[in-house]
Structures are given as C-alpha cells and as structure tokens.
Specification:
134 residues; mainly alpha; 0% strand
Amino acid sequence: MFELTDWSKHAQEQVQSAIAKDQEDLAAAIEQVQRETEQRAEQLRREGAEQKAAAAASMEEAQNKWQEHVAKVKSHLQQRKGELDVKRAELKADDAEGYASYAIDFAGPAILEAEYAALEAVRAHMEAEALAGR
C-alpha cells in the first residue's frame, strides 16, 4: 500500500511539473513515464510468473500430501477390515462350536432315550412271547 501512495504522489508531482513545461519537455516526460510503465509491467509479469510457479509447486506439494493421507486412510481401513473379518470369522467359529456343543448335549439324552425305547421294545416282545407261550 505504501508503494501505491508513493506512485500517486509521484504522478501528481509529474503532472504539476508538466503543466509548467513546454511541449518538448512534456513529450520527454511522457516518454519517461511510458518507459517506467513498461518496466514496471515487465517486472510485474516476472513476479507474477515467479508467484505462479511458487503457487504451482505449493499446490503440487499439497496434492501429494493429500494423496499420501488418503493412501494411509485406505491402508488403515483395509487393515481394520481384515481385523474385522478375522473377528467375524472367530465369532462364527465360536457360534458353530456352541451349536455343536448344544447338538451334542441334545443328542446324548436323545440317544439314551432311543436306547431306553429299544430296550423297552425288546422287553415288550419278550413279554408278548412269554404270554404267547413260546
């Protein structure tokens, strides 16, 4: 902002001075201002190009950091998914084991019941044969 104020003051002084000059001096002053304007424009173009290059490098660095972050997050999610898959498989195995244990617990008395029923059937046949006198 300080430069802008200086330029404004300089321009005002040049215009006041030009009013007091003759035609030839005025033409020389205009040429001088035109050269200064062209030099300043060239300087601004160079600075703009430098700033553009710096901004592009900064943007590329930011993009690289973002891509690294995304890759880390994806890797972490894959790891967590793998851990969850293992836990899910372990829970499924535990459930299957529990069901097998329940089935065994249920089957044991059922086998005993079947044995009892078979023995009762044998006894009933024996009694029937005894009654029939065989």
